[in-house]
Amino acid sequence: MRRMLLLAGVLAVATQQSRAQAPARRPAAAPPAAAPLDSARLRGMLYWPTDPYWATRAPDTVLMDVQTNRGTITIELRRAWAPHGVDRVYNLARAGYFDDSRFYRVVDGFIAQFGLAGDPVIAERWSHQTLPPDARRASNTRGTVTLAQFKPDDRTTNVFINLRDNSRLDAMGFAPIGRVVKGMAVADRLYAGYGERPMAAANTKRVYGEANRFLDAKYPKLDRIRKVTVRTR
């Protein structure tokens, strides 16, 4: 009996020493961060406008270099002015939505408008993705940039540059999202010979159904956006 008690004591001590010497368990490693989306994957996501990715919050200030066939227009987006609008344009721009598109509505001394994707499938899908209204926090003065709308809750992807002081638009709920900080002279030179005609009611179905194919065939002098590059301050 005494030998059994001594043996039990030895085993208990050995077990305690073994536990003391055992290395502490390491916490489970965190899963690796998701790889950033490359330009090709982003471009592909344009076909899926309801993906949660498109709700990514934009930085407070964003610069967009809009490279056109006439030169570069640099736009500063200000999220404090219109959060919903800036988030939308920022995410579209970095995915290449505006690349190889047209200034399809240029009215001399009024506005220069773009925002219709060159790919008709993308253009049609995004035409249904309306945004909540943004309260207007800036005026539509010359050089400001604003999302087009018929009413404040139907904005999608179409953006215009105010070529003059259009502050009369303020009362209609047009909320600027930013302003041109460089290249306003380029905006002033955009071809305005077609005026409102490309977006006439009779053209709407073909504009969204064919996009660049229709615009290039019927309105070949429209100026082009070659590429939009996004950078932060």
TrEMBL record:
<dbReference type="InterPro" id="IPR044665">
    <property type="entry name" value="E_coli_cyclophilin_A-like"/>
</dbReference>
<protein>
    <recommendedName>
        <fullName>peptidylprolyl isomerase</fullName>
        <ecNumber>5.2.1.8</ecNumber>
    </recommendedName>
</protein>
<dbReference type="InterPro" id="IPR029000">
    <property type="entry name" value="Cyclophilin-like_dom_sf"/>
</dbReference>
<dbReference type="GO" id="GO:0003755">
    <property type="term" value="F:peptidyl-prolyl cis-trans isomerase activity"/>
</dbReference>
<keyword id="KW-0732">Signal</keyword>
<feature type="signal peptide">
    <location>
        <begin position="1"/>
        <end position="20"/>
    </location>
</feature>
<feature type="domain" description="PPIase cyclophilin-type">
    <location>
        <begin position="71"/>
        <end position="190"/>
    </location>
</feature>
<keyword id="KW-0413">Isomerase</keyword>
<dbReference type="Pfam" id="PF00160">
    <property type="entry name" value="Pro_isomerase"/>
</dbReference>
<keyword id="KW-0697">Rotamase</keyword>
<dbReference type="InterPro" id="IPR002130">
    <property type="entry name" value="Cyclophilin-type_PPIase_dom"/>
</dbReference>
